[in-house]
Amino acid sequence: MRISIQPSSKKSPFLLAPATLLIVFFAVTPAPAGTIFSNFGPGNQYDSYGWIVSAVPEYQFSHTVAMGFTAGANYTVTQIGVALRVEAASDSNSIMLSIDDSLDGVPGTPLETWDVAGLSETSGIVTVTPLTQIDLVAGMQYWIVGDASQSNILTIIDWENSNLGNLGAVSENDNGVGWSSSENTQSAFDVQGFISTPDPACILLATVGLGLLLLVRQMSCSSFDFDVVPRPDSEGAKWQRNSF
């Protein structure tokens, strides 16, 4: 007797796999770029005065300032903006900016540094973008640092204050001898980026989706549904067995 195996009329569990994969994809895909921290006012407004970043080589003096912030989640930085203005007496129109990690409540190791030149006596928001990936850890403190200590000419840069009136971590360093931090009015800055790892809700959704996918695969491997339709043999026998 010869038999032929025909596909069952039941739906294959693998048809659920694309939908499950979509759930996992949207759960683990990073969020769009957004604001990690900002103390700019509405419309990116800020005050017309602020902390001074300076270097006076004639007197071997420099004043470096840093503004602290805390990452609310695991982020990857895409852009940093600061409000800067050159004082009229300054011979230089450039400073160094950096983003540093924190060590005992003061700036620690620079994660990346930028040479910001071409500043004007008219204040404006200067933006820098990372050349390497900068990952911030949720709950950890970081610092945006304005530094002119390496300048060999008179440098007086005004890092304009935030106009929100909120206090935050401010750290100062005179002549590179050490940092001193306090709660004070911060200079205006923002940090942009995107969440680099999913939040707990996304992780839970991804876990459920992966579990469903594994369950579907197990079901499909343990049960193979088919219809067996024998062809009549010489004795004319006919029989059919449905899905077991």
Terminal residue distance: 21 Å
The CATH architecture of the largest domain: Sandwich
The largest pleated sheet is described as: 13 strands, antiparallel
* CATH uppermost class of the largest domain: Mainly Beta
Count of alpha and pi helical runs: 2
Helicity range: 10-25%
The structural domain count equals 2
Task: Please give the number of β-strands.
Answer: 16
* Rounded radius of gyration (Å): 31 Å
Overall outline: globular
Given as residue ranges, the uncertain stretches (5+ residues, pLDDT < 50) are 1-5, 7-11, 19-28, 236-244
> What is the helix/strand order?
EHEEEEEEEEEEEEEHEE
The percent range for strand residues is over 45%
Q: Predict the CATH topology of the largest domain.
A: Jelly Rolls
Structural class: mainly beta
Name the average pLDDT.
Answer: 82
Please, could you describe this protein's structure?
This protein is mainly beta. It has 2 domains: 2-27 and 199-235, no CATH class; 31-195, Sandwich (Jelly Rolls), CATH 2.60.120. 14% of the residues lie in helices and 45% in strands. The protein is built from 2 helices and 16 strands. It has helices at 17-28, 200-222; strands spanning 2-7, 34-38, 50-56, 61-70, 75-86, 95-103, 106-116, 124-128, 135-136, 141-147, 155-160, 167-174, 179-185, 189-195, 226-231, 241-242. The strands form 2 sheets. Strands 2, 3, 4, 5, 6, 7, 8, 9, 10, 11, 12, 13 and 14 form a 13-stranded antiparallel beta sheet that branches. Strand 12 (167-174) and strand 13 form a beta hairpin. Residues 1-5, 7-11, 19-28 and 236-244 have low confidence and may be disordered.
